[in-house]
Design a protein that fits this description.
The chain has seven helices and eleven strands. The N and C termini lie far apart (45 Å). Strands 6-7-8-9 form a four-stranded antiparallel β-sheet, covered by helices on one side. Strands 1-4-5 form a three-stranded antiparallel β-sheet, with no helix packed on it. It has a two-stranded antiparallel ribbon with strand order 2-3. The chain folds into two domains: 106 residues, no CATH class; 166 residues, PPM-type phosphatase domain (Phosphatase 2c, domain 1), CATH 3.60.40. A hairpin with a 2-residue loop joins strand 8 and strand 9. The chain is of the alpha+beta class and 277 residues long.
Length: 277
């Protein structure tokens, strides 16, 4: 990943960044200048709270940090991020166009917007829940141990049945468990995202079961409650989908093509029957 934009920094911005409290920035600036090539510069730092906290070539960063540094903190515009490595592997053609792409593909600009619509249907009350985190880093409920780098989006739909207790539990816990798992794995690759999603589902299910057992059937209002669930995690150009039950995700392209990204976990699905035998 390479970023254009250093030449657009104002003298005042450069002076502010050389302030003693930002010790180490001149070294980062020198390193950046050494990598100038045809007007494109690698930015070897990560900024947070007004100062550099980490140095390294951009390819060692999680997607989104380059944009956070240049566009959000240094306020350098326009920012152009060129992604030259295909992190999705051979399956990328299913989701994304071939070749490198110029534009905002890191962090928040990977998701231009998000919204949801919910219909109660024939139930006496709404049993379903959903969560939308365009940037999971901004969730104030996450503890310091769960806090992630900016630029990871998390969306979840929880299809409750026989009560909303399970879907409400998922709203409070599944994304937090994902954040904790990904932080523990120090995830940088699509494989790490996938492993963190899988581990979060397992961890949430086990924790919910432990609470259920403590209260027992008669005293527990959620002893019949359950929920299907599907989550979508997006970081840069990487997207991971995880689901249990019959919640579905489809990918819709601008040209009208639709790609199904999930397979129902029901006994009406012969593949699922074979899987659980």
């Amino acid at each position: 990943m390479v970023v254009e934009g250093w030449a657009q920094l104002s003298d005042k911005t450069r002076a502010d960044l050389r302030h003693p409290k930002n010790e180490g920035f001149p070294l980062a600036l020198q390193e950046a200048k050494r990598h100038i090539h045809k007007g494109i510069v690698d930015i070897p730092m990560v900024m947070r709270d007004g100062g550099p906290i980490q140095y390294g070539r951009p390819e060692s960063w999680a997607p989104g940090l380059a944009r956070l540094v240049m566009d959000e903190i240094l306020q350098v515009k326009p920012l152009r991020v060129r992604i030259t490595d295909d992190t999705l592997g051979p399956d990328a053609a299913v989701l994304l166009p071939d070749g490198s792409v110029d534009g905002h593909f890191g962090g928040y600009d990977s998701v231009l917007g998000c919204a949801y619509s919910s219909i109660r249907g024939g139930c006496s009350y709404q049993e379903d829940r959903c969560v939308l985190f365009r940037d999971l880093f901004s969730d104030p409920s996450l503890s310091p141990a769960q806090r992630l780098e900016p630029g990871i989006s998390f969306f979840g739909v929880y299809d409750g049945h026989l009560g909303s207790q399970t879907s409400e539990y998922l709203v409070s816990h599944l994304h937090a468990n994902f954040a904790a798992e990904l932080r523990h794995k120090k995830g940088r690759t699509p494989g790490d995202l996938k492993a963190a999603v899988r581990a979060a589902f397992k961890r949430t299910d086990e924790a919910f079961w432990e609470e259920w057992v403590k209260e027992g059937n008669k005293q527990n209002p959620k002893h019949n409650s359950g929920s299907a669930a599907v989550v979508v995690v997006i970081r840069g150009r990487d997207m991971v989908v995880g689901h249990v039950g019959d919640c579905r995700v489809v990918l819709s392209r601008a040209g009208g093509d639709v790609v199904e990204l999930t397979v129902d976990h029901t006994f009406e699905n012969e593949r699922e029957v074979e899987r659980v035998k």
